[in-house]
Amino acid sequence: MEIERIRASYSVTSKSKAVVPKTVANLQVVNLLDADRSDINANQWTLLSNLLSCYDEYSGLIIGRNFMTEQNKMPARIRFKPSSIIHLFQLLLADGQLLYTKNRDFLALSTEDRSILIENTLIYTTASSVNFINSQIGIMDLSIFYEAMGVISNPGSITIMKRIASHMISDHVMMKLCLAIMSFSTLRPTFSPTDSSKQFSSLNAILNIQDSYIELAWRYLIYTYKLEWTVRCFSDMIRFLFIINEGVVQSKEVEWYHDTLDSVTQQTKDCLTVSD
């Protein structure tokens, strides 16, 4: 495994007045190949490796960095127009299906259970991953970005977006584990299009998978940051998820956003059907 691809800081080539992405907080770096000192067993290290490969933020970062480079080339008065922000979101949202199509535990579920999980959780996993990428490329540091968000969604989204930015999970490994945990959530959004009569055929198996991911996240944090940081990071993750939920509720009337999500949802289902 290439450790430098797990905990790396990213930068964008900048010119005068160009936006430079933030760097990840300077916390202790974990060497995932050095498992001797941790309480993580061999199977959990393998699981961690597999989960990290399910979500490759590098493709999203390339999209985001290219977007920022092109915007920085433009005159200041025409940068970050609402239409360009919508296009960025659409590109990043389309990248969200990999979290499901590359997860071995997810692929082992029945077609019906996978369908329910995708319909229930993709809106949360994509919202989290898109905001994570946006925080990395530095666009969430710009007031003009929030102005555009107020235009393309609604004014109430500005406050929520700023809260998301201030509570963003900075640890890349933990962010990926958080996404994996969310992808197996059995909770239905109150406005979910999923037929409420649909029931999971393997509910216990799904809950066991989610439990194993949560335990792995805890053990990873203990190994990386020790107990004090672990409690803080877990608390921050829960707070982040609550804010993401607020953002999802706030976005339910944004037509272009949900049209894109519907398309990604269907593409994800189709991709899994073909793989079967």
Automatic annotation (TrEMBL):
<protein>
    <submittedName>
        <fullName>Uncharacterized protein</fullName>
    </submittedName>
</protein>
